[in-house]
């Protein structure tokens, strides 16, 4: 029998999208190249674009907090401009075009290799929901593009909600939405949250009593913390409450299928 807690009792899964389903760090790193290549050869971003991604993310999160009504495409474009100016780079016509391209990046960035197949398998057992900090236009392009072949029963965006995770308002919106639209009651443990980001998803999930699965994608090791948060620090502070950990959506789907088979539950 499985060593993991029972996964067969839930009715729906809510997913963070970017970092969990979509490889946003790699996509963003590629879109930051026009800025990175304009920096001196000795600049740290030239040898390690991940540092640029981390700093970009800090600027973006600051905008989440200070301008929660700003749509995500505008947030990304402005974060690009802020990063350029911070590094002493003039945002000329070419870089302004690059900033706008970053803004539509979430609709283009690739899904992880395990995502689509994993979601198809999970969709045989649960209703699937997205709770994302993205804007409506970008999530529509992502669902039609990198996530094509999957089905979501509901999608809730920061643009529709009017705030960004980790705001608890986003999770309350999720709870109200799935109960009203899908008949799924979080208070009856019908909903399970699935996410990579510790800071944007798992910390608030614990605050609101939402059970969760961590899709670590290497973030359980210091060299892989990335934009998802410092696992060791957050764990020591008692801010995490996820009950399951898998490296990928594919690994998670494997365990779900195993548990349903063990219980003799049909898909």
UniProtKB/TrEMBL annotation:
Q: Which UniProt keywords apply?
A: Hydrolase
Keyword flag Ligase: no
Pfam families attached here? Hydrolase (PF00702)
Q: Has keyword Hydrolase?
A: yes
The record's Gene3D superfamilies line, in alphabetical order, gives: 1.10.150.750, HAD superfamily/HAD-like
- This protein's source sits in the domain of life called Eukaryota
PANTHER family, from UniProt?
A: ACID DEHALOGENASE, PUTATIVE (AFU_ORTHOLOGUE AFUA_6G14460)-RELATED, HYDROLASE, HALOACID DELAHOGENASE-RELATED
Recorded hits in InterPro entries, A to Z, give: HAD-like_sf (IPR036412), HAD_sf (IPR023214), S-2-haloacid_dehalogenase (IPR051540)
Q: Which GO terms describe its molecular function?
A: hydrolase activity
What name has this protein been given in UniProt?
Answer: HAD-like domain-containing protein
């Amino acid at each position: 029998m499985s060593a993991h807690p029972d996964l067969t009792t839930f009715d729906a899964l809510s997913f963070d999208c970017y970092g969990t389903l979509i490889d946003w760090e790699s996509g963003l790193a590629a879109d930051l190249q026009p800025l990175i290549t304009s920096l001196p050869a000795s600049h740290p971003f030239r040898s390690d674009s991940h540092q640029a991604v981390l700093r970009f993310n800090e600027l973006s999160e600051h905008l989440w907090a200070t301008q929660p009504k700003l749509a995500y495409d505008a947030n990304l474009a402005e974060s690009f401009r802020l990063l350029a100016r911070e590094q002493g780079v003039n945002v000329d016509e070419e870089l302004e075009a690059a900033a706008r391209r970053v803004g539509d990046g979430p609709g283009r960035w690739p899904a992880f290799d395990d995502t689509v197949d994993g979601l198809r398998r999970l969709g045989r057992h649960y209703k699937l929901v997205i709770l994302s900090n993205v804007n409506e236009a970008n999530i529509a392009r992502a669902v039609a593009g990198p996530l094509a072949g999957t089905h979501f029963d509901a999608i809730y965006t920061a643009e529709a909600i009017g705030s960004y995770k980790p705001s608890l308002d986003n999770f309350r919106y999720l709870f109200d939405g799935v109960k009203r639209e899908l008949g799924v009651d979080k208070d009856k443990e019908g909903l399970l949250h699935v996410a990579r980001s510790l800071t944007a998803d798992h910390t608030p999930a614990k605050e609101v009593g939402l059970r969760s699965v961590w899709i670590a994608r290497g973030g359980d090791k210091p060299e892989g913390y990335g934009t998802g948060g410092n696992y060791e620090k957050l764990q020591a502070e008692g801010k995490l409450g996820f009950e399951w950990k898998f490296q990928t959506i594919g690994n998670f789907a494997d365990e779900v299928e195993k548990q349903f088979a063990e219980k003799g539950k049909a898909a």
